[in-house]
Write a structure and sequence with these properties.
By secondary structure, this protein is mostly helical. The chain has one domain (about 5-15, about 30-120). About 30% of the residues lie in helices and about 5% in strands. Helix 2 (about 30-40) crosses helix 5 (about 110-120).
């Protein structure tokens, strides 16, 4: 069993003035369930592997790019506490940091489903980060 890294959640809790308890220790997730969840919910903003190579929002990191980061597992484990996700994502047992209305279609996800997404993210091919030169006029 592994535990979530609570540092990002703790910081967001302190900043928001909330009193959250630590999420329970979770077993390794199911990558296939994570793939389905990612394609269903995350692909509206992120490119998810071969599912939507020309989709997502251009300024939003793809799952492959996030998977290449040194803190990738921590980022995927705590994404629900990172902006902009808390504005439209609900996790049962985790208090929302704002009562502002959602600006995107809301959905609910469990901590077990978060682990499924983490398990799926671990299966992604880590793409190299390439810079493209641009020319001014």
């Amino acid at each position: 069993m592994k535990r979530h890294s609570l540092f990002p959640l703790l910081i967001s809790t302190l900043v928001a003035g909330l009193n959250l308890t630590a999420p329970p220790a979770l077993a390794d997730g199911d990558p296939e369930k994570g793939r389905i969840l990612s394609e269903q919910h995350c692909s509206r903003c992120h490119v998810i592997g071969d599912f939507n190579p020309f989709g997502g929002i251009g300024s939003t990191a793809s799952f492959q790019m996030i998977a290449k980061m040194k803190d990738a597992v921590e980022r995927f484990q705590s994404f629900y506490a990172r902006r902009p996700h808390p504005a439209f994502l609900t996790v049962p047992g985790v208090d929302k940091w704002s009562k502002a209305p959602a600006y995107a279609t809301e959905f609910t996800i469990t901590l077990e489903q978060v682990e499924d997404i983490v398990a799926f993210a671990k299966t992604l091919k880590k793409l190299p980060i390439r810079r493209t030169r641009t020319r001014g006029r």
